[in-house]
Amino acid sequence: TRGVLCVMRRPQLPDAEAVCAGARRVAVLEGVADSTNVGALFRSAAALGVDAILATPTCCDPFCRRAVRVSMGTVFQIPWTYLPDGWPEPSMGWLRAQGFRTVAMALRDDSVPLNDPRLLAEERLAIVLGTEGDGLAHSTIARCDYTVMIPMQHGVDSLNVAAASAVAFWQLGKQ
Fold this sequence. Notes:
The structure is a single chain. This protein is α/β, with parallel strands linked by helices. Helices cover about 30% and strands about 15% of the residues. It is built from seven helices and seven strands. It is globular and about 50 Å long. The relative contact order is 0.19.
């Protein structure tokens, strides 16, 4: 750096209940470690109507410099917090108790397509996105209500987690 630009106090994060109050669509980031991906996820979430973001403790800190920069400051606009309890349980049970149905974004043979009408009919959805490379843990996928994949063409087998989030947020955020 070229010296100190500013000094700021880190804001106190709200609890998960406050973050999810009134939310229809939330994103859950399971161990997304790359700060660029975290920033891009926040920017897509803010732009495409996701109401809140919940991060597991193994997720990159959204307040790290690169994530803030890539997000274009949306980490300060969209409500977010870390899930306070273990993941996937008991936090997954907590999401269900709040009325959320869970959507695992995963490339599996038993996945439903992203445009499945049942998904849009759900009042509250928690869209669960996994870490780069390995994706979601098998235990997480097994506990989710839906396993969803983005249909691919030209032999492409997957998208980067940030790109996949934008597609999912666009489709699942439709009213």
